[in-house]
Amino acid sequence: MSDDEPVTADLPDSPIRSTGTDHVTIWGSNAEDTISFYRDLLGMPLVLRQPNLDDPDQTHLFFDTGDGRILTFFVNDDRPSDPRPPYSGVGYVHHVAIRVAPDRFGEMVAAIDEDGRGYNVFDRGIFHSLYTRDNNGLTIEITTDTFSIPDERRGEVLATAQRIREEDGAEYAKEEHLEAALEELGIEATKHDLPDADTGTGV
User: Fold this and answer.
1) Domains of the chain
2) Which of 33, 156, 26, 27 is nearest to 98 (CA)?
3) Long-range contacts of 101-105 (CB under 8 A, 24+ apart)
4) What gap in Å lies between CA 18 and CA 133, rounded to an integer?
5) Is the separation of the CB atoms in 200 and 122 below 8 Å?
6) Which residue from 63, 41, 45, 44 is spatially nearest to 108, judged by alpha carbons?
7) Amino acid 202: pLDDT
8) Neighbours of 89 (CB within 10 A)
9) Which of 62, 78, 89, 143 could pair with 129 as two cysteines, CB 3.0-4.6 Å apart?
10) Which pLDDT score, from 0 to 100, does residue 6 have?
11) How far apart are CA 158 and CA 174, in angstroms?
12) 3-state SS of the chain: helix, strand, coil percent to 5?
C-alpha cells in the first residue's frame, strides 16, 4: 500500500460489506465521571446500562451519539478518573470525533469554556473543530461541517474534494475544494456561519 492507492467512494472488491459503525467501546474510569462528561456536558443520552458480559465486575454504559450510533464504556466505581493523556502508539485511540449542528457550534464552545476545560478551536477548511479532553485525558474532537453535506453522500463528496485538491496541488482539502466538489455533484453549497480560527496545521 502507498500514497498512490486510489481514494474513491466506489465500493471496493471485498468479501465483506460494512453498513456503518455500530459502536466503539472505550475503557472508562467510573460511571459518575463518565456520565457527567458524555451525557451531562456533551448531551449524549445514556440508553443502556448493563454488566460487561465478559467481566461482570464492570458496568457497560451505552451512549447514543445523536444519530443512533453508539459509544460505549466499560466502567467500575473503584477506578478513579485520570486526566493525564493516555498512552499513544500503534493500536491506541488517537481521538474520538463527534459532530454538532453548525448553529450550535458557538454555544458548544461556550459550554466547554464554562465547564473549565482547556480547548483549541481550528478551521480545518472543510470543517471546524474544537479539541478538548474527557475525564480520562482522551482527546475529544467536536466538529461541524463548513457546508451542509447529506449524510448518505458524505463519502462521495469527500472523495471528490480529494481529487480536486490533488489536481490543485494543495497539501490538504480546503473550503474551496469542498465547495467545488458539491457543485460538481449537483449538491447545493450551503455555507455555515462559523467563527474565524487558525488552521492548526503544520503545512
Assistant:
1) 21-77 (3.10.180.10), 92-203 (3.30.720.110)
2) 26
3) 101/144, 102/144, 102/145, 102/148, 102/192, 102/193, 102/194, 103/192, 104/144, 105/130, 105/144, 105/192, 105/194, 105/195
4) 30
5) yes
6) 41
7) 61
8) 5
9) 143
10) 83
11) 11
12) 25, 25, 50
Nearest alpha-carbon partner for 22 in 72, 90, 85, 61: 72
pLDDT averaged per 10 residues in sequence order, the chain, 203 residues: 76 86 94 98 97 95 94 97 90 93 94 95 92 96 93 93 94 92 94 88 61
Find the angle CA(91)-CA(118)-CA(103) to the nearest 5 degrees: 95
Total-model pTM: 0.89
